[in-house]
Amino acid sequence: MVSGFLRAGLGLLNMAKPKVIFVLGAPGAGKGTQCQKIVDRFGYMHLSAGDLLREERAKPDSQYGELIESYIQEGKIVPVEITCSLLESAMKKSGKDKFLIDGFPRNQNNLEGWNKAVAQNVNLLFVLFFECPREACVERCLGRGAAGSGRSDDNMQSLQKRFNTYITETQPIIKYYEERNLVRTIDANTSPDEVFEEVKKVFENFEAGGDF
Ligand code: C5P
Ligand code: MG
Predict the structure, then answer these.
(1) Are strands 19-25 and 45-48 parallel, antiparallel or unpaired?
(2) N or C: which terminus of the chain carries fewer CB neighbours within 10 A?
(3) Distances from the Cα of 186 to the Cαs of 39, 72, 108, 195, in angstroms?
(4) Chain-centre distance of CA 23, in angstroms?
């Protein structure tokens, strides 16, 4: 017979909070590429806010499809209620307990919505920030577009808007987390394998109980 006290304790253990790492950086900084490598090596589940929005947009019965498409083409950030609920339901559906959340939070509205609805239910480990000069990022996105990414925003016109949004809206979020000593910055202006060597150091150091 398990005592009430013990049962409560076991309940708490079962309810260990999911772990979250936010992945931020300019468009084309290599967030998606590196997340895939992290998944393969460290077993996290990758959730890209942009991918989830594109998936939602593609559903014929979505009430948000048109709104999402217009925001994406304009390089604007979709209202957090939509993005956060896509993230939450993907987290729940996965049954996993450690997540890379890529491309979120991208602005103050994202941050506030997350802090209000989700932050207290997860354990934010750190924020991985891929730092890369604009010219290299633009070149990568245009290359990706030319190679058939099929993305309606991998063109010069959308890219300019996406960069403006990144500078005016996302950089302050990175600063917010920097002030909380949560940002781990990676030089992303090298080859994917070289970047991953740096990423690995951050994860190995974290797992070893290093700088936290
Ligand atoms: O991260 P990714 O480059 O795939 O994002 C593509 C677009 O998706 C962004 O430019 C933006 O319009 C939208 N997005 C958003 N909110 C997020 C992430 C992406 O509105 N948190
Ligand atoms: Mg991406």
Answers:
(1) unpaired
(2) N
(3) 17, 26, 23, 7
(4) 4
> How many secondary structure helices (H) and strands (E) does the chain include?
10, 5
Distance from chain centroid for Cα 176: 16
> Given pLDDT bands bounded at 50, 70 and 90, which one contains residue 209?
confident
Contact criterion met (CB below 8 Å) for 152 and 158: yes
* Bridge partners (DSSP) listed for residue 98: 19
- Which residue, 127, 117, 211, is CA-closest to 174? 127
Instruction: Summarize the confidence of residues 67-95 as an average pLDDT.
Output: 97
What is the CB < 6 Å shell around ligand 1? 27, 48-50, 53, 71-72, 75-78, 83, 103-104, 106, 110, 153, 162
**What is the DSSP code (8-state) at residue 167?**
I
Ligand 1 atom nearest the C-alpha of 71 is 12
Where do we find the tokens 């929005």?
53
| Predicted pLDDT of residue 15 | 65
User: What gap in Å lies between CA 209 and CA 212, rounded to an integer?
Assistant: 6
Tens digits of per-residue pLDDT, 121-180? 999 999 999 999 999 999 999 999 999 999 999 999 999 999 999 999 999 999 999 999
CA distance 42 to 13: 23
Provide the pLDDT for residue 13. Answer: 56
Can you tell me the distance from the alpha carbon of 37 to that of 32, in angstroms, rounded to the nearest whole number?
A: 9
Sequence-ordered list of residues with C-beta below 8 angstroms from that of 202, at least 6 positions apart, any chain: 126, 128, 184, 186
Q: The whole model's pTM is what?
A: 0.92
